[in-house]
Description:
With 183 residues, chain A is mainly alpha-helical. Chain A has one domain (31-180). Helix content of chain A is 78%, strand content 0%. Chain A is built from six helices and no strands. Chain A has helices spanning 3-11, 20-26, 35-59, 67-92, 100-134, 141-180. In chain A, helix 4 (67-92) runs antiparallel to helix 5 (100-134). Chain A is elongated. Chain B is mostly helical and 157 residues long. In chain B, helix 1 runs antiparallel to helix 2, helix 1 crosses helix 3 (54-68) and helix 7 (126-133) packs across helix 8 (137-156). The model of chain B is unreliable at 76-81 (pLDDT under 50). Chain B folds into two domains: 1-93, RNA polymerase sigma factor, region 2, helix turn helix motif (Rna Polymerase Sigma Factor, Chain: A, Orthogonal Bundle); 108-157, Arc Repressor Mutant, subunit A (Orthogonal Bundle). The longest helix of chain B has 22 residues, at 2-23. Chain B is globular, with a radius of gyration of 16 Å. Chains A and B meet through helix 1, helix 2, helix 5 and helix 6 of A and helix 1, helix 2, helix 3, helix 5 and helix 6 of B.
Amino acid sequence: MDINDLKKSWATLNHDDLDKGQLQKMIRVKNHPTLQKLRIKLLTEIILLTLFLFIYYDALDGNKKPVYINLLLISGILLFIINNAIGYLFVKKMIYLPNIVSSIQRQIVILNRMFALSIISSVFYSVTLLLFLTVSIDFTNTKYFILIGILLAFSVMFFVSFKTWNARINHFRQLLADFKNYT
Amino acid sequence: MEEKFLYILNQNQKLIHKITRLYRDTFDDQQDLFQEIVYQLWKSFPSFRSESEMSTWIYRIALNTALSSYRKKRITFDHSENIPEKFLIENVSENSENEDRMFAALKELNDAEKAIISLFMEDYSYQEIASITGITENYVGVRINRIKEKLKIILGK
């Protein structure tokens, strides 16, 4: 088999044609494999966090905490929701520039920005939540242990998030290098 | 507009099938990528300018989508639908032996090489390949020659 045989096989590739109905289904978001899952996740987060915003003030003694702590918590939650919504929109609309190399370059720039926003929003949200829960509280040994546990859990989450983002960005850097360099 | 789009898509779906088989190993992944490409084509359809060939436009978006959708390497288990097609015995009878050998060889290339050689196999000129990929025309020639050499070694194994 040589390159001409490859070209012949490529040109005459066998495949099962999809009918019009099947193709029509594919252009709807509700049938999209990734977008539908992301949409449900985003909506669930928005509903749960909005619900939390409505009940936390009474249920978690928000009225007994300083106003600035309440404001910080609300901004932390809003930033978290905005970050997730941006992520959804990014997946929904592919970057499509006149050529592949520029598209990948643009994708790397945007991913770096989203990486920064994601880490900032997660850290900000976690810090404001911790501040809210710990301000004007009488600490006992048990409470200190719980606090350390929460801090450790957050650290692991940040580390995993950092590694995932890095792997994603490095994948596109490597792809760009594969287009531009040949060794 | 939807009717027109579906008609064009139907006429050109073979192009998309080629890209999905080139960039994804399992049937499920190929189906997901097919759907993702169709969705992105539909989203970009209103901005399509007829100065470029329809098939070229589809090829650009299909390649862009295949390359842009980052997927973590998955560990697959003992389910036939997750077995890479090059190892699926049933496929040997279904598809021609040449097709299987072709995809097995092409899958040894990296993603950038796959894009360049697929455009070459679609008979695009060096100038068109340069315009679609964003590398220079001279460099396209160099890359294609090197990919051909690489494929010769792979196919000779």
